[in-house]
Amino acid sequence: MATSEGARPVSLDGDDIRELAAEVAGPVSAPTGAGYADACATVNLLTPVRPAVAVGATGADDVRAAVRFAARRDLPVAVLSTGHQVVRPAEGAVLINMSRMDAVRVDPHRGTARVEGGARWRGTLDAAAAHGLAPVSGGSSTVGVAGYHLGGGASPIMGRLHGYAADHVAAIEVVSAAGEAHRVTASAEPDLFWALRGGGGNFGVVTALEFALFPVETFYGGGLFFAGRHAAEVLHAWRDWVVGLPVEMSSSVAFLRMPSQPAVPEPLRGRFATHLRFSSLGTKEEAERALEPMRRIAPTIMESFAELPYRQATSVFFEPPIPLPWVERARMLRDFPAEAADALLAAAGPDSGSALGLVELRRLGGAMTGPPAVPSAVPGRDAGWSLLGFGGDKDRIPLLREQVTGLVEAVAPWTHAELMPNLLGAWERTTPQTLRAMYGPERFDRLAAIKGRYDPRNLFRMNHNIPPA
């Protein structure tokens, strides 16, 4: 049995590669072959992958064949969709690149979408918008839809009204470690359905999933940008103000250290800014009334509010250009008193000396709190806040790692023990013990038991790994 987080060095010979190539329709690439670099390309340049072989899956049959090939040789299986959150370098693994499996089909009568395992949010948002519908989507248009749902899916615009994205998954098509296809729902293999929604890629390769859409065409959103010297008064005022917002409104505060580049709006270029991010699924008039107290806190250096089509939802959050090297860490917080705000300012505020490009504190709550209608393995539902630190300066990676660690340590007194899997950083090393704390003992033990039934050899271990019980 191979259960370690890595894998023994493996070199497949030509006969192995030819055998695999004969079983799949997509391209198969060895480390010295053409197409290998493209098949292994990640969005985060600090997390390269070096598998024994890479398979460009064109459909579920290719996925089944690749998994069976790996199982016959007792090799781990790694999955690459977009390359945002690669945890292990996949050495000695069979890598399945899902990018060719990106079809999206919307059923406007049922109000659902079926997306393949390699679909990204950009295509899904566009397909849903064509029917006046919207998913419980994330803050980036380039992130993979399947991985977002498997890790929880905390939507910065829809989450407080509708809960986690995982709560709205209706069916998951997955290939197990035995190379068998399963279609799981709340009534068909309910244990596996529970585990997949929150357990990430520990239980198989998701080839497609179906989830609910909502009749949302537009939202009102954008941001207020304050000069750095107003960071403390804005953060303290926002902390009190945001807890009174209705669930159709969402907000976060971000400390931004903006580069001096032409792509950055001139008022922000080369500056530290405090960015109050806000969105509302209600009317513009209701949103403006809600915003009025925060507009009075201090002068703004820029504003960016507008009524927008929901397909442009990610424009509120300043997506970084990709690919690039970055480090990040995140935590969920039980509460955020004045003392926590002061600790955050000391660690990442304008006078902290921090080099982190983004530090964002988001208010959760609403439908993200409490049990969902269909239970899932998503932890941290009683947290009230989430905190993210991000740095993408390739010349200062060691410093950024030190500072992002200092950031999460600064808020440790208010940190929730549980953490939504999507918030685990790519380079944040986890053990079964740390994951047990993150999920909570009861939830983790159930996940490990289900893992033991569906992947007893732990083939799916190139991730934040839950070993089989």
TrEMBL record:
<dbReference type="InterPro" id="IPR016166">
    <property type="entry name" value="FAD-bd_PCMH"/>
</dbReference>
<comment type="similarity">
    <text>Belongs to the oxygen-dependent FAD-linked oxidoreductase family.</text>
</comment>
<dbReference type="InterPro" id="IPR050416">
    <property type="entry name" value="FAD-linked_Oxidoreductase"/>
</dbReference>
<feature type="domain" description="FAD-binding PCMH-type">
    <location>
        <begin position="46"/>
        <end position="216"/>
    </location>
</feature>
<dbReference type="InterPro" id="IPR012951">
    <property type="entry name" value="BBE"/>
</dbReference>
<keyword id="KW-0274">FAD</keyword>
<dbReference type="Pfam" id="PF08031">
    <property type="entry name" value="BBE"/>
</dbReference>
<dbReference type="InterPro" id="IPR006094">
    <property type="entry name" value="Oxid_FAD_bind_N"/>
</dbReference>
<dbReference type="InterPro" id="IPR036318">
    <property type="entry name" value="FAD-bd_PCMH-like_sf"/>
</dbReference>
<keyword id="KW-0560">Oxidoreductase</keyword>
<dbReference type="InterPro" id="IPR016169">
    <property type="entry name" value="FAD-bd_PCMH_sub2"/>
</dbReference>
<dbReference type="Pfam" id="PF01565">
    <property type="entry name" value="FAD_binding_4"/>
</dbReference>
<dbReference type="GO" id="GO:0071949">
    <property type="term" value="F:FAD binding"/>
</dbReference>
<protein>
    <submittedName>
        <fullName>Mitomycin radical oxidase</fullName>
        <ecNumber>1.5.3.-</ecNumber>
    </submittedName>
</protein>
<dbReference type="GO" id="GO:0016491">
    <property type="term" value="F:oxidoreductase activity"/>
</dbReference>
<keyword id="KW-0285">Flavoprotein</keyword>
<dbReference type="InterPro" id="IPR016167">
    <property type="entry name" value="FAD-bd_PCMH_sub1"/>
</dbReference>
<dbReference type="InterPro" id="IPR006093">
    <property type="entry name" value="Oxy_OxRdtase_FAD_BS"/>
</dbReference>
